[in-house]
Amino acid sequence: MITLLQQLKDMGINAVVAGGAIRDKVRGVSPEDIDVWLLGDTSNVNPDVLASLLMDAKVFDNDDSDYFDVRVLVKGYYVDSTGVNRKVDIIIPWVHYNNAIELVGTFDYNINQGFVGIDCGFYQPDLSELRIINPERTDPERTA
Question: Which of 7, 6, 18, 1 is nearest to 78 (CA)?
Fold first, then answer.
């Protein structure tokens, strides 16, 4: 994923991987889905240019502010450094997050508050704080 982040940086776009992919990495699990969030002023970012970085990419306009204030979502696949195709969502938010801390601060406080980026390094949440808040919704097949 660092290669994709570097490609975006070379285009003048600051981005971080945030959320569940970081949680999975911390747990030692291979991420199924990688969310790449764009930071800063994204008003001039062309979604079709972002789509050109991915395989089988599709661009979705999304003015549904219930989904983390997403303006445009680019979904596709990226071949990582190990040669594995990873599902990637490149997220262009309505809100201009100036840095990764502002971005993850908007998520509910949970295990998904980690990020990795070219200029901001790697941040992982404190796993000692992890607790199940809805045990009736816990799927034993997924948590085993």
Answer: 1
CA atoms within 13 A on the CB side of 50: 27
- Averaged pLDDT, 57-63: 85
pLDDT tens-digit map of 73-132: 999 999 888 888 999 999 998 888 888 888 877 765 555 667 888 888 877 766 565 555
**Mean predicted lDDT score pLDDT of the chain:** 80
- Residues 6+ away with beta carbon under 8 Å from 18: 35, 37, 100, 103, 104, 112, 114, 115, 116
Contact of 97 with 39, CB cutoff 8 Å:
yes
Q: Which residues lie below 8 Å from residue 43, measured CB to CB, with a gap of 6+?
A: none
SS3 state of residue 12: coil
pTM of the model: 0.79
Radius of gyration over every alpha carbon of the chain, rounded to an integer in angstroms: 15
What is the DSSP-derived secondary structure letter of residue 38? E
Q: Quick check: 38 and 13 in contact, CB under 8 A? A: yes
**DSSP E strands, 1-144:** 15-18, 33-38, 55-61, 70-79, 85-93, 115-117, 121-123
